[in-house]
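Hi there,

I know you've been waiting on this one. I reran it after we fixed the sequence typo, so this is the corrected version. Both the input and the resulting structure follow.
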Amino acid sequence: MSRTPLEWKEFYTSSSFSAKYNYSGRLGAWIDDEGTHFRLWSPMAQEVHLRLFDHGSPEEDGTKGDAPTSDYTMQYGKNGVFSINSRKNLSGKYYDYLIQYEDETVQTVDPYAVSCGVNGLRGQILDLPATDPDGWVEEGPPAETEETVICETHVKDFSWDKSGGFPDDVRGRFLAFTKQHTSYNGKPTGLAYLKDLGVTHIQLLPVYDYCTVDEAAAFANNLKGTEAGEPYNWGYDPRNYFSPEGGLSSDPYRGEVRVRELKEAVMGLHKAGFRVIMDVVFNHTYGTDTPLQKTAPWYHYRLNEDGSLSEGSHCGNDVASEMPMTHKFILDCVMYWAKEYHFDGFRFDIMSLLDTDLMNDIKRHLDDEYGKGEKLVYGEAWNMQTHPYGDVAMSDKDHFTRLDTSIGYFNDIIRDSVTGCAFIPDDAGFADGSKDVEALKKGIASCLGGDGIISNPSQSITFLSCHDNRTLWDKLSKVNGLHPVGDTEDRRLRQNRLAAAIYLMTPGRPFFFIGEEGARTKNGDENSYNAPIEENAVHWDQLYAHKDLIGYYKGLISLRKSLPILCRKDDHLADDYMITGGSEDGLPEGLVFVQAKDATGHLLFVYNGSEYSRKLSLPDGHWQLLADTDCSTYWQDSKPHIENEKIVSEPMSAMILKKM
């Protein structure tokens, strides 16, 4: 292009450009009773050609190579939109655009393409209702539960390992979520396992079309029945935002298959009693060789003052969410996934690189369309360096009070206080050796609201582990490895139970990475985004080697749901909490007392992060022991366990009590 990136950006941000080229209508390709319609926003293009193909990639065209079956010149209209209409139903055809600028011609997929061919090289036109599974129009999520318990998983991780008992033709694919009853040695795996554990929501790592998995190679592996070298990636490398990822389908060469099978997966999850959250990545793209860049050069990306790409994402670029047509693109995309695929919520990767106006607009549209609070919205709010245009506030901790009070964030304050900073491998938290009562007091308080970041507990995604960084077990192993004399599996299990008790007994929306409850390990890898599937997969047999830990998590989750004060999400919960610890509060080293009291009862949580037993005085009254580090189900016994006046708090332990 003849202009420099900065010259492009200066042109785009002028008031004259916005007045002439901002567009609010429908974009993409769609089918209705009148035929097939195409709309592309490419304001600076001189000419655009629509090319149709019978196949989804050049290699399938055989001797034709890249030759299209049809080539049409599109008509330029208002607001920089090129259009063309056909009276034919072109469902199943593949297409791309050739865009001519002043000094070059580029080929691109439609940024709004709803499906694509293998490896995303061409978009696909679809009659979307024809991809609906039987009963799709009527299906919907299960009724909202009083408490939200979110489990995160990657589609391939969930069902790839053979110990999960999934049929070979669905292992590592969308269709694994249609299997309601799978098992390992007679014990439940998959959806039945998560339901028994008490999970209410399942968050799927990215399922849109991403770049670095070779779908053709994955398909060839499946045909050969081989598993070695199975292509793998978490999916934080977006290619086609409106299309599902073909490598998770049974046939990436047929674009309609990925669409239908993802719908079947969501339907299966709903049928099993789960709501489904989609992980979306709008803060960056995989490089700038993208449909967004090709259709509007430098419009959709942020630039530094020297014209280089801003990369607060640490992924090479930042998407300019503050630009009106980028805002529209992201909003359109979220609303599309909610409507077409029935997703029940959205987790935003590095949400802090998206502006607050956009996030509030997304929440407002979801609430208006589906009812207030029906769709969950949350994301990462780490403070990142980026270079937006104009007076723009990012959705980070510093500006979180500008967001809708139902938008949540991953609460690293509670995480780091319990197990140490996730980005410092050797750093210890309260549960694994630091005994830092002030940090834990602050961490628990951060989940209640009124701390200057969030206003109520619904905004706190209360967690210790996710796909990023080490698993909880690997984090405990790393910290304990510094003390080999005292490092035993029993010690780590006690720390794991203490850590779980703290965050599962703290208000907010509890969230965990699948397998945390069974000491899941990735061999210490803190960034396994493209590691072999053997490392990333959930090994169900290994989880069951820690069946007692699984049972402990199950008991805590069930206990949490039975205690109304832990499920409260109102703005005044902090008023009903008292958190004490440390010598100034008259408590021994390494002890934290949390009291929660409202009309539903009076609870006491005793957390001992020290190496010593502590004999402690209870507040006046008779107290029922609900759980401790040995057992999370005392509360289910027919005869209550009563404690009076004194208790003994064991080393690295938790006790949960309720006043009689």
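Quick highlight: The mean pLDDT is 95.

Best,
R. S.
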